[in-house]
Amino acid sequence: MSQAEVTRLYIGSYTQPEGHVPNGCGEGVYAYDFNLANGDLTRRSVLPGIVNPSFVHAETTLGLVYAVSETGEEGTLYTIRDEGGQLSVVSETSTGGSASCHVVRAGDVVYVASYMGGCTSAHPVDGDRVGNGHLAKYEGTGPNKGRQEAPHAHQALPSPCGKWICVCDLGSDRVWQHDAGNFGEPLGSLQVPGGSGPRHLCFHPTLPIAYVLCELTCTLLVVSIDPASGDMAIVTELGTVQTTPGVEPAAAGIRIHPTGQALYVSNRFSDTITVFTVADDGSLSQMQFFSCGGKTPRDFALVPGGAWLVIGNQDSDTISVFAVDPNTGRVDKDSQRVHECNTPSCIAF
Prior knowledge:
By secondary structure, the chain is mainly β. 0% of the residues lie in helices and 56% in strands. The radius of gyration is 18 Å and the shape is globular. The protein starts with 5 loop residues before the first strand and ends with a strand.
């Protein structure tokens, strides 16, 4: 098999039971080879010793992986080196917030969102090591007293233009916006409908549009972005899941196809994936709705090029793989194959 047919896949996991992960039994950070020709997975190694490395970010060309430890105590950001599929920790630093749940690198900075800490930290990169972070803390609450009693930063993501860092705050019903060139207090924010709980967002690859996924209401917001000022405005709101009696779903992951023609959302507890067609103007219409092939699809990702969809099913200890039309983004629902993996929580290429 040629190197061109294989890409590295990394999977984060919950290594111990938590309130939202009752059967957490992950082994750590997993490294797999993913066969781009047929969708097969081959495990290369697993890195133990990190408690709940629930989210990972890969810089494949650099041979680096970043992972955060999601616990009730102050979080830790780990830099991990991949040498031929074998993983080792090369540095670690505090995130400054508890329940750190998302990590991403943009340029020479690594950003971490901490859920219980209600904050985002920006860490300078020096080679394969990461320094202490500059911390931005948020304020605000929402009407859902059980989930929105305080700020809960769930994701920090750089805009495609590189000007801004946008942070989904589930607790305050806001998407905060920071200056990526001078990270500090927010420049402003987008207020979403009360009780929505914004969890994750993604950006259209070419249009000034963001898609904000709200966990608590299973809704998807189409948001316009002013290219000059960065001001955000909600254009429309859609549901992500078909109603099932007795099931209270919770939206989880969101990704857009590299072509910009399809958008994907995972719905926990209804255990489904919703696929939307993306029109030329960025508007959405539902294309597909199908079973994820497991229980609790916490996260998923598309392979580079968009020919496969890989889903981490947290509560069935499985990874589902589906073939995708690389030109349209349509999923072949009959192509599903399932692999065992304990408590997967994040999929990263």
